[in-house]
Design brief:
alpha+beta, six-stranded mixed beta sheet, 14 strands
Length: 327
């Protein structure tokens, strides 16, 4: 997690670039649910493009002489995929009156309220939280049809999110499963969440199954359906299976995570080091402006402006298993 957090920052009105802008932009990007919880790998120094390297091979052979000899099979190979960061901007105007009452009410609760003493900081926090939601949504759902079938329309369109990248790489995936219709809470059957979950894990490449770092990604709605399906497995002789707060969310030994931006009716099974988000946070190309126009134009509004970049990419499609709705 970044050292730049709005909770400890006093934000002044003005324009900031590079290092000076980092506390403002960092709070907007790094507080996105997926990034804050390390559900994917993050590159913070991508201005335009970043090359993601993938290695395979490196076979072991008998050392029966002193000569250097490459193996006949299984030699080390090097591939790559390119993460392209899209230039993004935030232009938000907030009516001070709309937020001032809430801010003043929070201050009445004393030091325990967590509200900043400076109103401009409060406005920036509000905008940063909204930007973080958008970053989270785009990271997973950018340009990805709402129902995954190609017939709907994408909710987020700033850049291609991970699910769109995975869909485009369907022919190269380690496993590409499809689902007809929305996931349901049925404990069995073709539409049941347990059927789709087992499909993604059981049919994944052995390299993914044998990797104890592999993770199952699904939406929070899908997780809700899963818990209902698990509860329905109980019989008169077997107690229902519930997933409680004191029990890890796992399936066949693999952790299940439900990022806020993950779309419904889609399951991804992969190691987080195969899924990347890139941004230019650690470069000099970011900017942030916080402008209270009350003393300038007389308008009782605050404008928050940010400029940064973001993009998503997968490293090796063959190391990813996915099941998604296609109709």
């Amino acid at each position: 997690m970044s050292k730049y957090q709005f909770a400890n920052a006093t934000i002044g009105v003005g324009t900031y670039a590079g290092e000076a802008a980092r506390p403002y932009v960092a709070a907007a990007i790094l507080s996105a649910d997926t990034i804050a919880n390390n559900y994917v790998s993050v590159l913070q120094n991508v201005h335009s493009k970043a090359v993601l390297r993938k290695f395979s091979g490196a076979a072991i052979q008998a050392n029966d002489d002193c000569a250097f000899s490459t193996p006949a099979a299984g030699q080390l190979t090097l591939g790559e995929s390119v993460l392209t960061a899209t230039a993004l901007k935030v232009n938000e105007q907030v009516c001070n009156e709309d937020l001032r009452a809430t801010w003043e009410g929070a201050l009445m609760n004393g030091q325990n309220s967590g509200a900043p003493a400076d109103f401009t900081t409060y406005v920036a926090q509000y905008v940063a939280a909204k930007v973080a939601e958008s970053v989270e949504g785009n990271l997973w759902q950018g340009n990805y049809d709402a129902d995954g079938s190609g017939a709907g329309s994408a909710t987020y369109t700033s850049f291609d999110g991970l699910c769109e990248v995975i869909k485009d790489a369907a022919a190269s995936l380690g496993y590409n499963g499809t689902a007809a219709g929305a996931f349901t809470a049925d404990a069995d059957g073709t539409t049941g969440i347990l059927t789709h979950l087992d499909d993604a894990v059981h049919n994944a490449p052995s390299t993914v199954q044998s990797d104890n770092g592999s993770v199952v990604y699904m939406s929070r709605k899908s997780l809700f359906l899963l818990q209902r399906a698990m509860a329905g497995l109980g019989t008169s002789t077997v107690s229902p299976v519930f997933v409680g707060s004191d029990r890890p969310l796992t399936y066949l030994g693999f952790n299940i995570v439900a990022p806020a931006g993950m779309p419904n009716d889609t399951i991804v099974f992969a190691n987080p080091n195969q899924l990347y988000f890139g941004t230019d946070l650690l470069t000099d190309h970011i900017n942030a402006s916080i402008l209270n126009l009350r003393d300038v134009t007389g308008d009782d509004v605050t404008r928050v402006i940010m400029q940064f970049s973001g993009g998503a990419q997968i490293v090796d499609a063959g190391s990813i298993s996915a099941v998604r709705r296609t109709s």
